[in-house]
Specification:
The protein is an alpha+beta fold. The protein is built from 14 helices and 15 strands. The strands form 4 sheets. Strands 5-6-1-7-8 form a 5-stranded mixed β-sheet. Strands 9, 11, 12, 14 and 15 form a 5-stranded mixed β-sheet that branches. Helix 4 packs across helix 5. The longest helix has 21 residues. It is globular, with a radius of gyration of 22 Å. The chain starts with a strand and ends in a 13-residue tail after the last strand.
Length: 390
């Protein structure tokens, strides 16, 4: 397999610069209110020189760069640019797995017979994207998805990194373990306690140590990826949908009734989206983010898939929230659900309604809740109710 990972460079900020060229030489931050509780969505490369990164609080970004320009995200505009980008990509590489507005995987192997021609194809993709939208993108080309994704980040902006077959471990080995997709802050912390700080060190872990640090299947998968082993193919015919809603309070809220009202309101909005698109879901999840940006989640699986706001917003998990002590919140609570599937049998028979799941997560019992948000995501497509998942 020859696969490329394409990543648009500082996408939101790049679009804003195209719309207003005077921003190109100034530190630009796309995100929320720097005088409130907004978060940085992305920053241009001028702003990144000040240490500003995605997911940083806008207040901290303003402290680091007082003369930065802050703009609010314009998602409809970004979707238009994204559509143009992927149309131009598909004109060169027909098989694409989009994983977001600004990134995705390309099956170069069906067009290029070897890695030499694959690189030339990657250059053609860059030229097409730049010619169509004036945006730049970086690509990683490798024999597996995980290596391609890591490689796409090595020569930003506008670079191409090719990792030849057999060179995967050599390429990944020296990198910090956090560069490996799937390794989060907590996993990295556990690994660091025993001196595992590079991807290469993770690749060398024996089975007993791995089970202690990263138990279960996840540990084995991450070690395989650290070795450059990733058998996943491109997913071009399974659409994963994520519908999220988040609202930050201007002031802390310790009124439990109001928090439940917000939960029900967001559940109603999500349920309306499901009904409008002919979808149902069995998994509802509520996430809560606290002032220190830590996140707590709780979940519940319903017996049947639903698209009704009362069930989503007032499920058993919501009741357990009501029984907990008052939680002053800094952001709005919301219902979330995953395992959303079509309510009509319009998809291939290999997937079914039986694999949908529903999660509801209550506000955890912590003193200050930063943010709760919700999402619906479809994990499969279904055309029968046999309960057999492929």
């Amino acid at each position: 397999m020859i696969v490329a990972h394409l990543d648009l460079d500082a996408f939101f900020a790049a679009v804003e610069e195209l719309e207003d060229p005077t921003l190109r030489s100034r530190p630009l931050i796309v995100g929320g209110d720097p005088h409130g509780r907004g978060v940085v969505a992305t920053a241009n490369y001028v702003a990144r020189e000040f240490g500003i990164q995605s997911a940083m609080s806008c207040a901290e970004a303003l402290r680091r760069c007082p003369h930065a320009v802050f703009v609010r995200p314009r998602h409809s505009l970004y979707r238009e640019y994204s559509r143009s980008v992927w149309d131009s990509v598909r004109a060169i590489v027909p098989t694409v797995e989009r994983t977001g507005l600004d990134e995705g995987y390309l099956d170069l192997g069906e067009v290029a017979p070897d890695f030499l021609r694959a690189r030339a194809l990657a250059e053609a993709v860059q030229t097409a994207v730049r010619g169509t939208t004036r945006l730049t993108c970086s690509l990683g080309v490798a024999s597996s998805k995980v290596v391609a994704k890591v490689a796409s980040d090595r020569r930003k902006p506008g670079g191409i990194t090719v990792v030849l077959p057999g060179r995967e471990r050599e390429f990944l080995g020296p990198l910090a373990v956090r560069k490996l997709p799937g390794i989060g802050p907590r996993s990295a912390e556990r690994l660091a306690r025993i001196g595992i700080e590079t991807v290469g060190a993770l690749a060398e872990l024996d089975d007993d140590t791995l089970r202690t640090l990263l138990p279960g299947k996840v540990g084995r998968v991450l070690r395989d990826r650290a070795r450059g082993i990733d058998p996943r193919r491109l997913e071009t015919d399974v659409a994963r949908i994520s519908i999220s809603q988040e609202e930050t309070f201007p002031r802390d809220v310790d009124d439990r009734v109001r928090l439940h009202d917000e939960l029900r309101r967001m559940a109603a909005s999500l349920a309306e989206h499901l009904r409008r698109n002919g979808q149902v879901g069995r998994t509802v999840t509520t996430k809560v983010r606290y002032p220190d940006f830590s996140i707590r989640t709780r979940s519940l699986t319903l017996d049947v898939a639903v698209a009704d706001s009362d069930t989503i917003g007032t499920s058993r998990a919501g009741s357990s929230t009501a029984r907990s002590r008052t939680v002053p919140a800094r952001s709005a609570s919301s219902a979330s659900a995953s395992g959303v599937s079509r309510s009509t049998p319009s998809w291939r028979s290999a997937e079914c309604q039986g694999c949908s799941s529903a999660i509801v997560q209550p506000l955890p019992e912590r003193r200050y809740a930063k943010r709760t948000w919700s999402r619906f995501s479809r994990c499969c497509q279904n055309s029968n109710a046999s309960g057999v998942r492929r």
